[in-house]
Amino acid sequence: MLDGQFLFTSVSVACYARAQGYEFRIFISTDFASLIHCIYNYLHIIFRRFEDYIDNGTEIAFFDRFYNWEIAAGSYIVRNSNWSQQFLKGFADYEYRLPTEYHGTDNGALHAYIAEMLFSDTRRSELEFCLRIYYNLKSYKDLFTFEACVRQMIGMHTKIGNIQIYKKGTAWVRDNWMTNSKWSPDKDFMLHNWKIHQLRRYRQSDLLHGASKAEWFNPFKGIIQLELCAPG
Description:
This protein is of the alpha/beta class. The protein folds into 2 domains: 16-30 and 49-166, no CATH class; 172-228, no CATH class. 35% of the residues lie in helices and 9% in strands. It contains 7 helices and 7 strands; from the N terminus they run ααβββααααββββα. The strands form 2 sheets. It has a 4-stranded mixed β-sheet with strand order 3-2-5-4, with no helix packed on it. A 3-stranded mixed β-sheet has the order 1-7-6. Strand 4 (159-160) and strand 5 form a beta hairpin. The longest helix is centred in the middle third of the chain and has 15 residues, at 105-119. It is globular, with a radius of gyration of 19 Å.
């Protein structure tokens, strides 16, 4: 049974998959709570395809968030290969290596894990400096400092080995609050952070000032009818 918290967005994904002829599966397991969040937490715009964002030389693709220098942990495209499976297992196992106090959830762990994969053998002293920040986090401000440290090591590269990082505004997904829940059929593909408990009704002031990061407005007039979702 689908969690009502993500029912709206999961139905939008199902509709998109039907229209594009994709196989759509939802894995529900207590061991993969964060994965369920990633699957459900998006609205899909019907006019684009995942193939537009797949590079033959890439095993896993991430993207830069708009409002800071963070590599987003909420969505990524993965090739089904031995390398990618080992990467994801290592990322999942980072749960057992998190700082004992504040750790920035999956966002902090992703930066630590990628930095270790890329620089453990070649730039050990810089890596240790960044990880010292990570294991002494106290707040979001500290988290952003740590992420900036890792991004300074990565530099302006968008492709390092098997990992690709899409630049701001070029990936398949973005935060919905940046444009007050409005989207463009020409530019957008997926919108992040649509949870039912954060859904709000428009007020006059919202039209001018927009929603907070924890709110969204439904741009659709009615519910999504799956029986109408078909190719063509």
